[in-house]
UniProtKB/TrEMBL annotation:
Domain (Radical SAM core): residue spans on this chain: 162-401
NCBIfam families membership: rSAM_HemZ
CDD domains: Radical_SAM
Name used for this protein in its record: Coproporphyrinogen dehydrogenase HemZ
Pfam family, one: Radical_SAM
Source organism of the structure: Pseudoflavonifractor intestinihominis
Origin superkingdom: Bacteria
Molecular function terms, GO-annotated: coproporphyrinogen dehydrogenase activity
Length: 494
Protein backbone atom coordinates (compact mmCIF):
# COMPACT_ATOMS: atom_id res chain seq x y z
CA UNK A 1 0.00 0.00 0.00
CA UNK A 2 1.28 3.45 -0.88
CA UNK A 3 1.76 5.58 2.22
CA UNK A 4 2.11 9.38 2.25
CA UNK A 5 3.10 10.92 5.59
CA UNK A 6 2.64 14.66 6.17
CA UNK A 7 3.54 16.72 9.23
CA UNK A 8 5.40 13.89 10.99
CA UNK A 9 7.92 11.11 10.58
CA UNK A 10 6.25 8.32 12.59
CA UNK A 11 6.89 5.77 9.87
CA UNK A 12 7.15 2.76 12.17
CA UNK A 13 3.83 3.47 13.95
CA UNK A 14 2.05 3.90 10.59
CA UNK A 15 3.56 0.69 9.22
CA UNK A 16 2.57 -1.23 12.35
CA UNK A 17 -1.09 -0.26 12.11
CA UNK A 18 -1.13 -0.83 8.34
CA UNK A 19 0.35 -4.34 8.72
CA UNK A 20 -2.13 -5.12 11.49
CA UNK A 21 -5.16 -4.13 9.43
CA UNK A 22 -3.88 -5.19 6.00
CA UNK A 23 -1.52 -8.13 6.81
CA UNK A 24 -0.94 -9.01 3.15
CA UNK A 25 0.29 -5.51 2.27
CA UNK A 26 3.79 -4.04 2.41
CA UNK A 27 4.45 -0.30 2.91
CA UNK A 28 5.61 1.71 -0.12
CA UNK A 29 6.74 5.35 -0.08
CA UNK A 30 6.66 6.54 -3.70
CA UNK A 31 7.80 10.06 -4.64
CA UNK A 32 4.96 10.53 -7.13
CA UNK A 33 1.28 10.77 -6.14
CA UNK A 34 -0.87 7.63 -6.42
CA UNK A 35 -3.48 7.29 -9.16
CA UNK A 36 -7.07 8.02 -8.21
CA UNK A 37 -8.77 4.85 -6.92
CA UNK A 38 -5.41 3.14 -6.29
CA UNK A 39 -4.81 1.65 -2.79
CA UNK A 40 -3.23 4.43 -0.72
CA UNK A 41 -3.21 6.12 2.69
CA UNK A 42 -2.44 9.77 3.40
CA UNK A 43 -1.60 10.04 7.09
CA UNK A 44 -1.35 13.62 8.32
CA UNK A 45 -0.58 15.16 11.70
CA UNK A 46 -1.86 18.62 12.64
CA UNK A 47 -0.33 20.21 15.75
CA UNK A 48 -1.93 23.00 17.79
CA UNK A 49 -0.92 24.59 21.11
CA UNK A 50 -3.16 22.30 23.19
CA UNK A 51 -4.21 19.47 20.90
CA UNK A 52 -2.92 17.35 18.04
CA UNK A 53 -5.06 15.66 15.39
CA UNK A 54 -4.23 12.63 13.27
CA UNK A 55 -6.10 12.36 9.99
CA UNK A 56 -6.01 9.45 7.54
CA UNK A 57 -7.55 9.50 4.07
CA UNK A 58 -7.58 5.87 2.91
CA UNK A 59 -8.49 4.23 -0.38
CA UNK A 60 -8.72 0.45 -0.51
CA UNK A 61 -10.13 -1.68 -3.33
CA UNK A 62 -12.04 1.31 -4.72
CA UNK A 63 -13.56 2.37 -1.39
CA UNK A 64 -12.46 5.56 0.36
CA UNK A 65 -12.88 6.81 3.93
CA UNK A 66 -11.41 9.39 6.26
CA UNK A 67 -10.64 8.79 9.93
CA UNK A 68 -9.42 11.24 12.53
CA UNK A 69 -8.36 11.24 16.17
CA UNK A 70 -7.61 14.19 18.47
CA UNK A 71 -5.35 13.93 21.53
CA UNK A 72 -4.48 16.51 24.15
CA UNK A 73 -0.78 17.34 24.14
CA UNK A 74 -0.81 20.28 26.57
CA UNK A 75 0.78 19.22 29.83
CA UNK A 76 2.84 16.37 28.35
CA UNK A 77 6.34 17.07 29.58
CA UNK A 78 8.61 14.30 28.29
CA UNK A 79 9.38 13.47 24.65
CA UNK A 80 8.43 9.80 25.22
CA UNK A 81 4.95 10.76 26.44
CA UNK A 82 4.48 13.19 23.56
CA UNK A 83 5.62 10.67 20.95
CA UNK A 84 3.22 8.11 22.42
CA UNK A 85 0.26 10.51 22.26
CA UNK A 86 0.99 11.63 18.69
CA UNK A 87 1.45 8.06 17.48
CA UNK A 88 -1.83 7.11 19.14
CA UNK A 89 -3.63 9.91 17.23
CA UNK A 90 -2.14 8.71 13.94
CA UNK A 91 -2.82 5.02 14.55
CA UNK A 92 -6.40 5.57 15.66
CA UNK A 93 -7.11 7.84 12.68
CA UNK A 94 -5.81 5.08 10.38
CA UNK A 95 -7.81 2.49 12.30
CA UNK A 96 -11.07 4.44 11.94
CA UNK A 97 -10.59 4.91 8.20
CA UNK A 98 -9.63 1.24 7.77
CA UNK A 99 -12.67 -0.06 9.67
CA UNK A 100 -14.89 2.10 7.42
CA UNK A 101 -13.43 0.68 4.18
CA UNK A 102 -13.13 -2.90 5.43
CA UNK A 103 -16.62 -2.89 6.94
CA UNK A 104 -15.48 -4.90 10.00
CA UNK A 105 -13.46 -4.55 13.18
CA UNK A 106 -10.27 -6.63 13.37
CA UNK A 107 -9.97 -9.07 16.31
CA UNK A 108 -7.42 -6.99 18.21
CA UNK A 109 -8.94 -3.64 17.23
CA UNK A 110 -6.33 -0.90 16.98
CA UNK A 111 -3.73 -2.78 19.06
CA UNK A 112 -0.51 -3.24 17.13
CA UNK A 113 1.99 -4.64 19.62
CA UNK A 114 3.33 -8.17 19.99
CA UNK A 115 2.29 -8.39 23.66
CA UNK A 116 -1.33 -7.29 24.14
CA UNK A 117 -1.47 -8.90 27.61
CA UNK A 118 0.94 -6.30 29.00
CA UNK A 119 -1.82 -3.67 28.91
CA UNK A 120 -4.24 -5.39 31.35
CA UNK A 121 -1.34 -6.78 33.42
CA UNK A 122 0.02 -3.28 33.98
CA UNK A 123 -3.46 -1.99 34.85
CA UNK A 124 -3.94 -4.79 37.42
CA UNK A 125 -0.50 -4.09 38.89
CA UNK A 126 -1.47 -0.42 39.25
CA UNK A 127 -4.31 -1.65 41.46
CA UNK A 128 -7.14 -1.33 38.93
CA UNK A 129 -9.97 -3.86 39.05
CA UNK A 130 -10.29 -6.53 36.32
CA UNK A 131 -13.28 -4.60 34.93
CA UNK A 132 -11.20 -1.41 34.68
CA UNK A 133 -8.29 -3.29 33.09
CA UNK A 134 -10.62 -4.80 30.49
CA UNK A 135 -12.20 -1.41 29.82
CA UNK A 136 -8.83 -0.09 28.57
CA UNK A 137 -8.78 -2.82 25.92
CA UNK A 138 -12.39 -2.13 24.99
CA UNK A 139 -12.59 1.66 25.04
CA UNK A 140 -9.12 2.74 23.94
CA UNK A 141 -8.20 -0.06 21.55
CA UNK A 142 -11.59 -1.50 20.44
CA UNK A 143 -10.49 -5.08 21.17
CA UNK A 144 -13.30 -7.58 20.51
CA UNK A 145 -14.92 -9.45 23.48
CA UNK A 146 -13.32 -12.84 22.70
CA UNK A 147 -9.81 -11.36 22.53
CA UNK A 148 -10.42 -9.29 25.66
CA UNK A 149 -11.27 -12.46 27.56
CA UNK A 150 -8.13 -14.17 26.22
CA UNK A 151 -5.99 -11.21 27.28
CA UNK A 152 -7.57 -11.01 30.74
CA UNK A 153 -7.06 -14.74 31.40
CA UNK A 154 -3.42 -14.44 30.35
CA UNK A 155 -2.97 -11.31 32.51
CA UNK A 156 -4.14 -13.31 35.56
CA UNK A 157 -1.63 -16.08 34.72
CA UNK A 158 1.05 -13.43 34.33
CA UNK A 159 0.36 -11.99 37.80
CA UNK A 160 0.43 -15.47 39.36
CA UNK A 161 3.79 -16.14 37.66
CA UNK A 162 5.16 -12.81 38.86
CA UNK A 163 4.17 -13.66 42.43
CA UNK A 164 6.22 -16.85 42.32
CA UNK A 165 9.45 -15.20 41.09
CA UNK A 166 12.34 -14.02 43.24
CA UNK A 167 14.49 -11.04 42.26
CA UNK A 168 17.66 -13.07 41.83
CA UNK A 169 16.08 -15.59 39.44
CA UNK A 170 16.40 -15.72 35.67
CA UNK A 171 15.46 -18.13 32.88
CA UNK A 172 17.98 -19.91 30.67
CA UNK A 173 17.41 -20.53 26.96
CA UNK A 174 19.70 -22.81 24.96
CA UNK A 175 19.29 -22.74 21.17
CA UNK A 176 19.92 -25.67 18.80
CA UNK A 177 19.36 -24.15 15.32
CA UNK A 178 19.34 -27.47 13.44
CA UNK A 179 16.46 -29.41 11.88
CA UNK A 180 16.24 -32.62 9.83
CA UNK A 181 14.47 -30.80 6.95
CA UNK A 182 13.16 -27.27 6.49
CA UNK A 183 9.42 -26.45 6.82
CA UNK A 184 7.83 -24.34 4.08
CA UNK A 185 6.94 -21.50 6.48
CA UNK A 186 10.35 -21.38 8.20
CA UNK A 187 12.75 -18.46 7.96
CA UNK A 188 14.83 -19.57 10.92
CA UNK A 189 17.09 -22.48 10.01
CA UNK A 190 19.37 -22.51 6.98
CA UNK A 191 17.78 -23.60 3.66
CA UNK A 192 20.55 -26.16 3.24
CA UNK A 193 19.82 -28.24 6.34
CA UNK A 194 21.92 -31.22 5.17
CA UNK A 195 25.10 -29.13 4.87
CA UNK A 196 24.34 -27.36 8.17
CA UNK A 197 24.12 -30.70 10.05
CA UNK A 198 27.86 -31.26 9.40
CA UNK A 199 28.46 -28.28 11.68
CA UNK A 200 26.81 -29.95 14.67
CA UNK A 201 30.02 -31.19 16.41
CA UNK A 202 31.90 -27.83 16.20
CA UNK A 203 28.64 -26.06 17.12
CA UNK A 204 28.32 -28.11 20.32
CA UNK A 205 31.98 -27.43 21.14
CA UNK A 206 31.34 -23.67 20.91
CA UNK A 207 28.08 -23.99 22.85
CA UNK A 208 29.82 -25.91 25.66
CA UNK A 209 32.27 -23.04 25.98
CA UNK A 210 29.39 -20.58 26.22
CA UNK A 211 27.67 -22.74 28.88
CA UNK A 212 30.86 -22.68 30.99
CA UNK A 213 31.19 -18.90 30.65
CA UNK A 214 27.50 -18.39 31.48
CA UNK A 215 27.81 -20.51 34.64
CA UNK A 216 30.72 -18.37 35.79
CA UNK A 217 28.89 -15.13 34.92
CA UNK A 218 25.72 -16.11 36.82
CA UNK A 219 27.75 -17.19 39.86
CA UNK A 220 29.60 -13.86 39.94
CA UNK A 221 26.28 -12.02 39.75
CA UNK A 222 24.53 -14.16 42.38
CA UNK A 223 21.80 -15.12 39.90
CA UNK A 224 19.92 -18.43 39.88
CA UNK A 225 18.24 -20.27 37.03
CA UNK A 226 14.55 -20.81 37.68
CA UNK A 227 13.56 -22.33 34.33
CA UNK A 228 15.49 -23.97 31.48
CA UNK A 229 14.26 -24.14 27.90
CA UNK A 230 16.20 -25.94 25.18
CA UNK A 231 14.65 -24.87 21.88
CA UNK A 232 15.53 -24.44 18.24
CA UNK A 233 15.34 -25.53 15.55
CA UNK A 234 14.76 -29.05 16.76
CA UNK A 235 17.01 -29.99 19.71
CA UNK A 236 16.22 -33.69 19.25
CA UNK A 237 18.10 -33.52 15.95
CA UNK A 238 21.00 -34.27 18.34
CA UNK A 239 21.74 -37.93 19.15
CA UNK A 240 20.90 -39.34 22.60
CA UNK A 241 24.62 -39.11 23.51
CA UNK A 242 24.87 -35.49 22.35
CA UNK A 243 21.71 -34.54 24.29
CA UNK A 244 23.02 -36.21 27.45
CA UNK A 245 26.40 -34.51 27.02
CA UNK A 246 24.80 -31.07 26.52
CA UNK A 247 22.41 -31.37 29.46
CA UNK A 248 25.17 -32.86 31.63
CA UNK A 249 27.43 -29.94 30.73
CA UNK A 250 24.71 -27.45 31.64
CA UNK A 251 24.20 -29.16 35.01
CA UNK A 252 27.93 -29.33 35.69
CA UNK A 253 28.56 -25.64 35.05
CA UNK A 254 25.31 -23.86 35.93
CA UNK A 255 23.66 -23.99 39.35
CA UNK A 256 20.21 -25.52 38.79
CA UNK A 257 19.37 -25.93 42.50
CA UNK A 258 16.44 -23.49 42.14
CA UNK A 259 15.26 -24.75 38.75
CA UNK A 260 11.61 -25.81 38.92
CA UNK A 261 10.94 -26.42 35.23
CA UNK A 262 13.04 -27.90 32.40
CA UNK A 263 11.65 -27.98 28.85
CA UNK A 264 13.20 -29.55 25.77
CA UNK A 265 11.54 -29.07 22.40
CA UNK A 266 11.33 -32.47 20.78
CA UNK A 267 9.49 -30.70 17.93
CA UNK A 268 9.62 -33.06 14.98
CA UNK A 269 8.26 -36.55 15.76
CA UNK A 270 10.69 -38.10 13.26
CA UNK A 271 13.56 -37.13 15.59
CA UNK A 272 12.09 -38.71 18.75
CA UNK A 273 13.39 -42.06 20.02
CA UNK A 274 13.08 -43.89 23.35
CA UNK A 275 16.87 -43.46 23.88
CA UNK A 276 16.69 -39.70 23.42
CA UNK A 277 13.71 -39.39 25.76
CA UNK A 278 15.53 -41.46 28.36
CA UNK A 279 18.55 -39.08 28.03
CA UNK A 280 16.21 -36.08 28.51
CA UNK A 281 14.45 -37.58 31.52
CA UNK A 282 17.70 -38.77 33.08
CA UNK A 283 19.14 -35.27 32.81
CA UNK A 284 16.24 -33.43 34.41
CA UNK A 285 13.76 -32.58 31.62
CA UNK A 286 10.17 -32.56 32.89
CA UNK A 287 8.44 -31.07 29.84
CA UNK A 288 8.79 -31.80 26.14
CA UNK A 289 7.13 -30.31 23.10
CA UNK A 290 5.97 -32.68 20.39
CA UNK A 291 4.73 -30.46 17.59
CA UNK A 292 2.43 -31.98 15.01
CA UNK A 293 1.37 -28.56 13.55
CA UNK A 294 -1.29 -30.60 11.72
CA UNK A 295 -2.57 -34.17 11.89
CA UNK A 296 -3.26 -34.22 8.14
CA UNK A 297 -0.67 -36.01 5.99
CA UNK A 298 -1.58 -33.79 3.02
CA UNK A 299 -0.86 -30.63 5.03
CA UNK A 300 2.32 -32.10 6.53
CA UNK A 301 3.57 -32.86 2.99
CA UNK A 302 2.71 -29.34 1.82
CA UNK A 303 4.77 -27.98 4.75
CA UNK A 304 7.82 -30.03 3.76
CA UNK A 305 7.76 -32.08 6.99
CA UNK A 306 9.21 -35.53 6.47
CA UNK A 307 6.85 -37.30 8.87
CA UNK A 308 3.23 -38.45 8.94
CA UNK A 309 0.40 -38.17 11.45
CA UNK A 310 1.07 -41.82 12.42
CA UNK A 311 4.64 -40.81 13.42
CA UNK A 312 3.14 -38.22 15.78
CA UNK A 313 1.01 -40.84 17.53
CA UNK A 314 4.06 -43.10 17.82
CA UNK A 315 6.20 -40.28 19.21
CA UNK A 316 3.49 -39.33 21.71
CA UNK A 317 3.33 -42.91 22.95
CA UNK A 318 7.09 -42.93 23.42
CA UNK A 319 6.89 -39.73 25.49
CA UNK A 320 4.06 -41.18 27.59
CA UNK A 321 6.19 -44.25 28.31
CA UNK A 322 9.27 -42.16 29.13
CA UNK A 323 7.81 -40.82 32.38
CA UNK A 324 8.26 -37.16 31.36
CA UNK A 325 5.19 -35.64 33.06
CA UNK A 326 4.31 -32.63 30.90
CA UNK A 327 3.82 -32.62 27.13
CA UNK A 328 3.07 -29.64 24.92
CA UNK A 329 1.71 -30.03 21.40
CA UNK A 330 1.72 -27.20 18.83
CA UNK A 331 -0.87 -26.75 16.10
CA UNK A 332 -0.96 -24.06 13.40
CA UNK A 333 -4.16 -22.55 11.97
CA UNK A 334 -3.90 -21.36 8.38
CA UNK A 335 -1.40 -23.88 6.93
CA UNK A 336 -1.28 -24.49 3.16
CA UNK A 337 -3.74 -27.15 1.96
CA UNK A 338 -5.60 -27.06 5.31
CA UNK A 339 -9.33 -26.40 5.71
CA UNK A 340 -11.75 -25.70 8.56
CA UNK A 341 -12.64 -29.40 8.74
CA UNK A 342 -8.99 -30.46 8.51
CA UNK A 343 -7.98 -28.17 11.37
CA UNK A 344 -10.90 -29.35 13.51
CA UNK A 345 -9.89 -32.98 12.94
CA UNK A 346 -6.28 -32.13 13.90
CA UNK A 347 -7.35 -30.43 17.12
CA UNK A 348 -9.73 -33.27 18.01
CA UNK A 349 -6.96 -35.84 17.52
CA UNK A 350 -4.51 -33.83 19.61
CA UNK A 351 -7.12 -33.46 22.35
CA UNK A 352 -7.72 -37.20 22.30
CA UNK A 353 -4.02 -37.66 23.19
CA UNK A 354 -4.67 -35.51 26.27
CA UNK A 355 -1.44 -33.43 26.52
CA UNK A 356 -1.09 -30.99 29.43
CA UNK A 357 -0.37 -28.04 27.10
CA UNK A 358 -1.65 -27.24 23.60
CA UNK A 359 -0.31 -24.19 21.76
CA UNK A 360 -2.42 -22.92 18.89
CA UNK A 361 -0.44 -20.76 16.47
CA UNK A 362 -1.67 -18.75 13.53
CA UNK A 363 0.47 -19.01 10.40
CA UNK A 364 2.78 -16.03 9.93
CA UNK A 365 4.16 -15.43 6.44
CA UNK A 366 7.83 -14.83 7.11
CA UNK A 367 10.31 -13.22 4.76
CA UNK A 368 12.81 -15.81 3.48
CA UNK A 369 10.41 -18.75 3.91
CA UNK A 370 9.66 -21.06 0.99
CA UNK A 371 5.96 -20.30 1.43
CA UNK A 372 6.63 -16.59 0.97
CA UNK A 373 8.73 -17.02 -2.18
CA UNK A 374 6.85 -19.87 -3.87
CA UNK A 375 3.32 -19.33 -2.50
CA UNK A 376 0.87 -22.08 -1.57
CA UNK A 377 -2.82 -22.77 -1.30
CA UNK A 378 -3.63 -20.93 1.93
CA UNK A 379 -6.95 -20.83 3.80
CA UNK A 380 -8.65 -17.41 3.84
CA UNK A 381 -8.68 -15.12 6.90
CA UNK A 382 -12.33 -16.15 7.45
CA UNK A 383 -11.30 -19.82 7.46
CA UNK A 384 -8.55 -19.08 9.98
CA UNK A 385 -11.04 -17.16 12.15
CA UNK A 386 -13.37 -20.20 12.11
CA UNK A 387 -10.45 -22.52 13.02
CA UNK A 388 -9.50 -20.33 15.98
CA UNK A 389 -13.12 -20.01 17.11
CA UNK A 390 -13.36 -23.79 17.13
CA UNK A 391 -10.08 -24.11 19.06
CA UNK A 392 -11.17 -21.50 21.58
CA UNK A 393 -14.53 -23.12 22.34
CA UNK A 394 -13.31 -26.71 22.24
CA UNK A 395 -10.25 -26.14 24.43
CA UNK A 396 -12.22 -24.23 27.06
CA UNK A 397 -14.86 -26.99 26.98
CA UNK A 398 -12.14 -29.60 27.56
CA UNK A 399 -10.86 -27.77 30.67
CA UNK A 400 -7.88 -25.92 29.14
CA UNK A 401 -7.20 -22.25 29.95
CA UNK A 402 -5.23 -19.69 27.92
CA UNK A 403 -2.12 -18.62 29.87
CA UNK A 404 0.13 -16.70 27.47
CA UNK A 405 -0.26 -15.19 24.05
CA UNK A 406 1.58 -13.11 21.50
CA UNK A 407 1.12 -11.70 18.06
CA UNK A 408 3.52 -11.52 15.14
CA UNK A 409 3.89 -9.41 12.04
CA UNK A 410 2.42 -10.77 8.79
CA UNK A 411 0.09 -13.04 10.73
CA UNK A 412 -2.85 -14.47 8.84
CA UNK A 413 -5.99 -12.41 9.65
CA UNK A 414 -4.09 -10.42 12.31
CA UNK A 415 -4.82 -13.04 14.99
CA UNK A 416 -2.50 -14.47 17.68
CA UNK A 417 -0.61 -17.47 19.10
CA UNK A 418 -2.06 -18.81 22.34
CA UNK A 419 -0.67 -21.25 24.89
CA UNK A 420 -3.45 -23.34 26.51
CA UNK A 421 -2.94 -25.43 29.59
CA UNK A 422 -4.67 -27.77 31.95
CA UNK A 423 -4.78 -26.14 35.40
CA UNK A 424 -1.44 -26.41 37.19
CA UNK A 425 0.67 -27.05 34.07
CA UNK A 426 1.38 -23.42 33.06
CA UNK A 427 4.85 -23.16 31.57
CA UNK A 428 6.60 -20.46 33.56
CA UNK A 429 9.32 -19.93 30.94
CA UNK A 430 6.79 -19.02 28.26
CA UNK A 431 5.05 -16.51 30.54
CA UNK A 432 8.35 -14.93 31.66
CA UNK A 433 9.56 -14.73 28.07
CA UNK A 434 6.42 -13.29 26.51
CA UNK A 435 5.52 -10.93 29.33
CA UNK A 436 9.15 -9.92 29.96
CA UNK A 437 8.83 -10.71 33.67
CA UNK A 438 12.51 -11.39 34.24
CA UNK A 439 15.85 -11.81 32.48
CA UNK A 440 16.20 -14.60 29.94
CA UNK A 441 19.83 -15.49 29.27
CA UNK A 442 20.03 -17.09 25.83
CA UNK A 443 22.95 -19.26 24.75
CA UNK A 444 23.52 -20.68 21.27
CA UNK A 445 22.73 -19.67 17.69
CA UNK A 446 19.65 -17.51 17.16
CA UNK A 447 19.25 -16.83 20.88
CA UNK A 448 18.18 -13.38 22.04
CA UNK A 449 19.13 -12.53 25.62
CA UNK A 450 16.69 -10.15 27.25
CA UNK A 451 17.93 -8.30 30.31
CA UNK A 452 14.95 -7.10 32.35
CA UNK A 453 14.92 -4.56 35.17
CA UNK A 454 11.25 -4.43 36.14
CA UNK A 455 11.71 -1.72 38.77
CA UNK A 456 13.22 0.76 36.31
CA UNK A 457 11.18 -0.52 33.34
CA UNK A 458 14.43 -1.16 31.45
CA UNK A 459 14.95 -3.94 28.87
CA UNK A 460 18.13 -4.58 26.86
CA UNK A 461 18.70 -7.23 24.23
CA UNK A 462 21.80 -9.13 23.12
CA UNK A 463 21.33 -11.13 19.91
CA UNK A 464 23.48 -14.09 18.95
CA UNK A 465 24.13 -14.88 15.26
CA UNK A 466 21.42 -17.04 13.75
CA UNK A 467 23.39 -19.47 11.59
CA UNK A 468 25.66 -22.14 13.14
CA UNK A 469 28.78 -21.21 11.10
CA UNK A 470 28.45 -17.56 12.18
CA UNK A 471 27.97 -18.63 15.80
CA UNK A 472 31.02 -20.93 15.74
CA UNK A 473 33.23 -18.24 14.19
CA UNK A 474 32.07 -15.51 16.58
CA UNK A 475 32.08 -17.52 19.83
CA UNK A 476 34.85 -15.49 21.55
CA UNK A 477 33.03 -12.26 20.79
CA UNK A 478 29.67 -13.77 21.86
CA UNK A 479 31.06 -14.83 25.25
CA UNK A 480 32.61 -11.40 25.80
CA UNK A 481 29.38 -9.66 24.76
CA UNK A 482 27.36 -11.52 27.43
CA UNK A 483 29.39 -9.66 30.06
CA UNK A 484 26.92 -6.82 29.36
CA UNK A 485 24.70 -8.73 31.81
CA UNK A 486 27.13 -7.80 34.61
CA UNK A 487 26.99 -4.07 33.67
CA UNK A 488 23.20 -4.22 33.42
CA UNK A 489 22.80 -5.72 36.90
CA UNK A 490 25.39 -3.34 38.35
CA UNK A 491 23.30 -0.40 37.05
CA UNK A 492 20.09 -2.00 38.34
CA UNK A 493 21.58 -2.38 41.84
CA UNK A 494 22.74 1.24 42.02
S1 LIG B 1 10.88 -27.36 12.86
FE1 LIG B 1 10.76 -25.15 13.25
S2 LIG B 1 12.86 -24.38 13.06
FE2 LIG B 1 12.79 -26.43 12.11
S3 LIG B 1 12.44 -26.07 9.92
FE3 LIG B 1 10.43 -26.38 10.88
S4 LIG B 1 9.72 -24.32 11.46
FE4 LIG B 1 11.93 -24.18 11.03
Amino acid sequence: MKLYLTGHDYKYACEQIMLTLFPGQRPLYPEEPAEEGEDQAHITLFRGAQWATGRTALTWEGKSAVGSCRVKTAGLTGQVELDRALQKALKLSFYRAAVAVLGKEPPWGALTGVRPVKIPTKALLRGETPAQAEAVLRDTYHVTPVRRRLAMDCARASLAALDSLKEDEISLYVGIPFCPTRCAYCSFVSADVGKALKLLPPYLEALFREVEAAGDLLKRQGLYVRTVYIGGGTPTTLSAEQLAALMGHIRAHIDLSRCTEYTVEAGRPDTITAEKLSALKGNGADRVSVNPQSMSDKVLRAMGRSHTAADILRAYDLVQNSGIPCVNMDLIAGLPEDSREGFRASLDQVLAMDPANITVHTLALKKGSRLMTEGGSLPTAEDVAAMLDYAWTTLRGAGYMPYYLYRQKYMSGSFENVGWTKPGFENLYNICMMEELHTVLALGGGGVTKLVDRTAGRIERISDPKYPYEYINAIDHIIADKEKLADFYAAARR
